[in-house]
Amino acid sequence: MKSVRTFGPLVLALLLLVGGSLPASAGEAFTIAAGAGYRKLVSALGEAYAKTGKPLPQQVYGNMGQVIAQAKQSGVVDLVIGDKKFLDKAELDVAAEYAIGKGRPVLAVAKGCPSAAWKGRKVLDAAGAKALLADPAVARIALPDPKKAIYGRAATEFMERSGLAQGVAGKLLPVGTVPQVSAYVVSGEVDLGFINLTDGLAIKDKAAAVIPLDESLFDPIRIVADSLKTSPNPAAAAEFGAFLATPAAREIVAAQGL
Q1: One domain for residues 161 and 251
Q2: φ and ψ at 84, to 5 degrees?
Q3: Which of the residues in the chain have pLDDT under 70?
Q4: Rounded distance between C-alpha atoms, residue 196 and residue 256, angstroms
Q5: Whether residue 110 is found in the same domain as residue 210
Q6: Fewer Cβ atoms within 10 A, N terminus or C terminus of the chain?
Q7: pLDDT at 149
């Protein structure tokens, strides 16, 4: 059985950062690295895959900058899950690509938000964004780091195309990952937070509202799984890639808001 030490300091640091752990069958499993905002999705897919009699995948999470670093430097990552555009720019040595779904950015409204401009909105368009985000009553708006997280980039595009980039700049609180934004919204430390629908579904009962963004105001987000040519377990990576197209996997993806 592999020990944690086998994975080297970079992987160990990421595991500790997000509270990950290695399963008891680590020596038999393969490794998936994914953006922290997809932890629930990847965990659910891994559990469903294990029910078919296959090994439970090892999983590491972080912002996409961390994920790419792990994939390039650690030598133990078999599959990377994230935004296709981001992964393409990272110039990973990809053996195969498997489609997962469509990323859906949303705005989470904290309970106790001092603005009422979110009420009754099914989709947040440019006019709605100006009424809500630019409301003087709104003091803090959290978003994932636009340089490292796809939903931070989508939030930035949304605000720029809504004509809000300058007007709300002083309210913005960039943080590392989508789950960190969600935590701020749930705790009421911010009034609003840009996250993905996957995380939005998880906190919907702890937020005042979770509102999808107008899709014309940000670039499309395609979530994929890339198996790497450097994969130490290429056959297992290919088997998991094929599993992603099965009805069981597609049901999980849909339930997670992709």
Answers
A1: no
A2: -60, -45
A3: 1-28
A4: 10
A5: yes
A6: N
A7: 86
Its domain, for residue 203, covers 105-217
- Spatial separation of the C-alpha atoms in residues 131 and 129, rounded to whole Å: 5
Tell me which residue of 53, 74, 71 sits closest to 10, measured CA to CA: 74
Contact 209, 118 (CB under 8 A): yes
How many domains does the chain fold into?
2
Phi and psi of 47, rounded to 5°? -65, -40
Q: Do 151 and 163 fall into the same domain?
A: yes
CA separation for the pair 234, 175 (Å, rounded):
34
**One domain for residues 149 and 172:** yes
Cα dihedral value 77, 28, 23, 13, nearest 10: -30
Which pLDDT does position 131 carry in this prediction?
97
Q: What is the DSSP letter of 4?
A: G
Instruction: Calculate the alpha carbon distances from 243 to 26, 48, 73, 82, 100 in Å.
Output: 20, 10, 27, 17, 11
What is the C-alpha to C-alpha distance for residues 113 and 118, in angstroms, rounded to an integer?
9
CATH number of 38's domain:
3.40.190.10
Which pair of structure tokens corresponds to residue 44? 């659910």
Q: Are residues 183 and 228 in the same domain?
A: no
Do both 114 and 178 map to the same domain?
yes
Q: What is the pLDDT of residue 15?
A: 45
Q: What is the pLDDT of residue 21?
A: 40
Is there a single domain that holds both residue 25 and residue 69?
yes
What's residue 109's pLDDT?
A: 98
